[in-house]
Amino acid sequence: MNAEKSLKKNDFLIIATKASKEISLKSYEYFIQTEKKHIDFINKIMEAYEGLGIIRTLDANKGLVKIITIDTAKKDINGIIEDLNKRDIKIEILEEGFWKGEL
Fold it and tell me: Cα separation of 98 and 70, whole Å?
């Protein structure tokens, strides 16, 4: 009998409960600036990652955008920003930190 089959239904609940106590997910936000023409593409990239973060356009004419994610996804978001910058979609991080509660 393999390990998966030997686990009971309640074992999964215990594992999930322990994991949720060890990982505290906090919302995190980035304020970025890019060119207006890149905002839609950046939004589509974030949508493609399904749940990694959401985009809010603060001022399209100035290219000001907010990305809201969770603190454990910072490495992924930074990687996306770095990759887009390498592809001539210039993104400058103006500010980042724990989410202040505004969409």
Answer: 9
Q: Please name the residues in contact with 59: beta carbons below 8 A apart, sequence gap of 6 or more.
A: none
Chain segment 40-63, per-residue pLDDT in tens: 999 999 999 988 999 999 999 999
- Stated pTM of the model: 0.74
Q: In this structure, which long-range contacts are made by residues 86-92, counting pairs with CB atoms below 8 Å and at least 24 apart in sequence? A: 89/34, 89/38, 89/41, 89/42, 90/34, 90/35, 90/38, 91/32, 91/33, 91/34, 91/38, 91/42, 92/32, 92/33, 92/34
Structure tokens at 65: 């955008």
Provide the residue type at 59 as one letter. D
Is residue 64 classed exposed, middle or buried when 0-12, 13-18 and 19+ CB atoms within 10 A define those classes?
Answer: middle
Helix or strand holding residue 80 (H, E): helix 74-86
Q: Tokens representing 33? A: 């600036």
* Token reading at 49: 């990652």
